[in-house]
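Figure-free illustration: sequence to structure, shown twice.
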Amino acid sequence: MEDPVLLTGAGGSVGEAILQGLGDEYDWRLMFHSPPATEPDHEYLVGDVVDEETVREAVAGVGAIIHLAGDPRPSAPWASVLSNNIDGTQKMYEAAVDTGVERFVYASSNHAVGAYETDERTPEMYRTGDDYRLDGTEFPRPGNLYGVSKATGEVLGRYYHDEHDISVCNIRIGNLTEGHPPIDYERGQAMWLSYRDCAHIHECALEADYDFEIVYGISDNDRKYYSIERAKDALGYEPKDNSAEWDGDERID
């Protein structure tokens, strides 16, 4: 990709994983909500995604956007998700189409479908195979207002793709941790996304040929709540990690 890639929310853990794995692979422009603690190795700016002038400055001249910025708290109140997650995402899309950006990768979340885990789709059913796993074709079913904002971000992407032909990939990111899966947390292990698989799936989203996609961003764990078959088929995703290969914080040889 010749033009820079804009990475919003660059100071968070997902941004850290992406830059850790792909920092030398692209010409990055980073957007931080607050000044970074250390000077980044890439071009950057500090600003708020709800500020239209800042957003247009960030988007100018880039070829693709990975949009991570927003309030990441599952308990975030409505005022915050409305402003930071929904309005900020709409402003980013509007600037993208106005400036001719061709690709938009959106950090969605498993919280967009979190309420499926509360009744008929029990953990036992998830273990029986892909017939029972969520695969991205299901209707959103958020379990909190943060999830509502992520589902709304996906719908915004559908609209901007249909109206303006921008390529959109929504990645429903699972439980991202560095080094090893969550310890003594079965649900987190089933939803685990390693740092290197996080970088890889975003690289796939930057490079693959697609129109509009919703995929799950988790590693290739033996036990899964979500199917990664669409990510493999549409993006060429080839995850390397599996939470079953770990015992606590030690990898099983």
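We now fold a second protein in the same way, so the two outputs can be compared directly.
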Amino acid sequence: MGAREVNFDGLVGPTHNYAGLSYGNRASSQHRHQASNPKEAALQGLLKMSRLMELGLTQGILPPHPRPDLKALRQLGFCGSDQRVLEEAASDAPELLAGCYSASAMWAANAATVSPSADSADGRVHFSPANLISNFHRSLEAAFTAELLKTTFPDPDYFVHHPPLPACARFADEGAANHTRLATSLESPGVQLFVHGSQPGTMRKPQHYPARQTLEANLALARRHRLKKGCAFFVQQNPQAIDQGVFHNDVIAVGNGMSLFYHEQAFAEPEAMKSNLEDALGTGLRMIEVPQSRVSVEDAVRSYLFNSQLLTLPSGECRLLAPTECLDVEPVRRYLDTLTATGTGIDRVETINLRQSMANGGGPACLRLRVILNDRELAAVKPESLLTKTRLATLVDWVERHYRDRLTLMDLADPQLARESKTALEELARILKLESLYAPFL
């Protein structure tokens, strides 16, 4: 039975703003309080989805979360009418208001960890929504994400949905941004690489920025996904890289098929990792290590080189879809000029403009959740969650009609923005046939 990798991209929401809420994410901090352009951000994301479809890949979509999250503000003590809640929060706790308006669910790589049926003992696809407890604004996403995944992948014969891990520091989980899968083919059992930033009993930990993924979370994910023996590998991220702004592993490494593209300083014990992966996957494994002498960690973070998408096209071609910022950072541009000629297995490099998302700290890989599905599983996905040319055109028109082209933090206190967002999402729910999903949250 054939299988394919489907990218389910997060659609940027109408309240996309630059509040700088993500400590440790340098791009987010650097653009704090600048004006954003939600319309441009959403259209850039849709253009990326369209490009992947042009390349012959199956493309899915995950819609925005309802924002502002007025229920969360009321839980935090703000009361009265919706307008009163927004006004009081803007006056007394603007950072909480910004958190409840955040469109960060657009970065679907943090939505969940997904294990394909080929790796699972019960032969089903397993989903675990991330608890995202490291940041208040992201922790608000877990409940809606859980329901969204159940709606998108509804058939229990093929899909298993687990609840988020317990919401405590011991099981801090940021989803697939710290997880990748390598395999000789999509249909055969592979190796799932679970990357953690901290683990009990070790002195290796970042000194400046927090480690957002724990070893105990990864061990729990592998257990609950019932991974077959030899399918789970646990690797620690380099703490020094975290302190340089590598808040997730997908800022410093990306894998696909039999290729792992990563920075020399990505992992705490790179030689042991390479040896273990080679033993598990054999001689066909391509370890594409970028040396610090060619691209520094700082330049990798500035350009988001490793937050590219590593794609295997239907023709067999391996393509790197990189953010345009890679062309702005000279050492990265020079490295990419030679990448395809050095026998790495990457056949072509293509860049794409996602500057609105990049300014908030998320590149091409951040915007997508990868789900490997065989033919039967793909047929069981909610049809409206898969993009077609017609559906894509409808979404472009929806964005053009409902999104603002300028948004500042001062606008978050305006009740009109909340009304606009609700109206937009009510129409989107009808377009994607998600009325029952959105109704309890709007």
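Summary for the second example: The first strand starts at residue 3 and ends at 10.
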